[in-house]
Amino acid sequence: MAEDRTGQVAVMFVSERTGDDPHGYSAAADAMDALAAQQPGYRGIDSVSAGGLGITLSYWADEASAVAWRHHPEHAATREAGRGRWYKWYRLHVADIRRSYSWMRE
């Protein structure tokens, strides 16, 4: 069950991949997931992909934590690699979470 994320910052990354270098993409994605989880203010991630389209939501304690992740040198280098190799396009949105709840079937 997901935790209450009220008050957190959500970074929404929506993308379409090129299909080039799937093994390199997978390794980079795993490395970024692990690196993000070590950053101050990191609160979690949700991700889904189908047919080359992907949506990843990362959650941060506050705006400063999200901005620090954006500027992290390894993340910045991987982002540039993604622009050159793995993505046709992407969109990024940042939002404050005002309300959060979840439900799970028993």
Q: How would you describe this structure to a colleague?
A:
The protein has a single domain, classed as Alpha-Beta Plaits (2-Layer Sandwich), CATH 3.30.70.100. Helix content is 37%, strand content 34%. A four-stranded antiparallel beta sheet has the order 2-3-1-4. The termini are close together. The mean pLDDT is 95.
How many domain units? 1
Distance between the termini: 11 Å
Rounded Rg = 14 Å
Major sheet: 4 strands, antiparallel
Average of pLDDT: 95
Share of β-strand residues: 25-35%
Series of secondary-structure elements, N-terminal to C-terminal: EHEEHHE
The poorly predicted ranges are: none
Fraction in helix: 25-40%
The appropriate CATH architecture is: 2-Layer Sandwich
Biggest sheet strand line-up: 2-3-1-4
CATH topology: Alpha-Beta Plaits
CATH class: Alpha Beta
Number of strands: 4
Pfam family, one: ABM
GO molecular function, one term: monooxygenase activity
Keywords: Monooxygenase, Oxidoreductase
Protein name: Antibiotic biosynthesis monooxygenase
